[in-house]
Amino acid sequence: MVQLGLVGTVAPDGSPVVLGVRGAAPQFAEPVCRVEVLATSQVTATAVRAEIESLVAEHDVLRGQVLAFGVSEHFGNELLTFLPRPDIGGDEVVLPAGVLESIEAHVVGIARHGERLLAAGQHLKRGLLLYGPPGTGKTHTMRYLMGRLPGSTIIILTGAAMRFIEKAAMLARRLQPSVVVLEDVDLIAQDRGYDPMGTGQPLLFSLLDAMDGVGGDADVTFLLTTNRASELERALADRPGRVDLAVELPLPDAAGRETLLQLYARGLRLTADLAPVVEATEGAPASFIKELLRRAALRSLAENSDADVHVGDAELTGALNEMYAARNNLTRALLGNPTS
């Protein structure tokens, strides 16, 4: 790491300049690196500074990455984790007809036509809320959208990391096109009617300020999820760019459950009659169907550990009966299917 240095170079207009670099020294209350420009005129120095800022933004190591904020369990240090970008096909997102297309148009479509929208006087900042019962595919759908925006910076906040919403919004402005993901946003954005003293939601105002602080011309998307839409703060939808579109992801119907069974059976040799299982799983979310296929596969392997994992009527029905057994009441509830 460079602590002190001088570099000779040229300004954008070709005149000679010297860059002085002073490294960060937190122990001396200097938490950031400083770059000083020595030039023959203030105009030249200003042009050099602008060029440096442009290059820093262009080559930022965080640009175009999938990032997750977190906290160290030992010292409470702030953490930033690099994650792989999900690669999920549209056929792997099982939603009612037209729902995924509506979501894509709002998030991906605006990104695709951003320049023309701005030229037409339209704002780019947008907010999407996905809501519905647990296990219906809200997180899965968001992961699909991440893959559909390969050039965007993705910033993920969950749980305790939501307290970094202001820093995440600042980063999103700097690294646009970008997406800020807040899962289970009701944890910090419960309607103020549930807290008449106004003391229990300190992060709600941070969230609203962060969303408002991103200019309308910024290509920034806020993706929010919740299982409890009825409890959310109504101010989230008061202004454009907070939440412009709220989409319910319902429990899958019979056709959806059959599609899910076939989807999660990829890699298995599925010969079971699906009709009885589709009927028996009415009211079950996608997460329940996924676990059902895994248990059926385990039953098959217990009988025959060959590479070809066969799931027939016996394995699938046995797994279903096991999940609906009284001893698995809590498991069913956690998977979003509390009743048999």
UniProtKB/TrEMBL annotation:
Record has Hydrolase as a keyword: no
Ranges for domain AAA+ ATPase: 124-253
GO MF terms, alphabetically ordered: ATP binding; ATP hydrolysis activity
Coiled-coil regions listed in the entry: none
Family matches, as PANTHER family: 26S PROTEASOME REGULATORY SUBUNIT (PTHR23073)
Protein name from the UniProt record: ATPase family protein associated with various cellular activities (AAA)
Keywords per UniProt: ATP-binding, Nucleotide-binding
InterPro entries the record matches: 26S_Proteasome_ATPase, AAA+_ATPase, ATPase_AAA_core, P-loop_NTPase
Family: Belongs to the AAA ATPase family.
Organism: Actinocrispum wychmicini
One Pfam family from the record: AAA
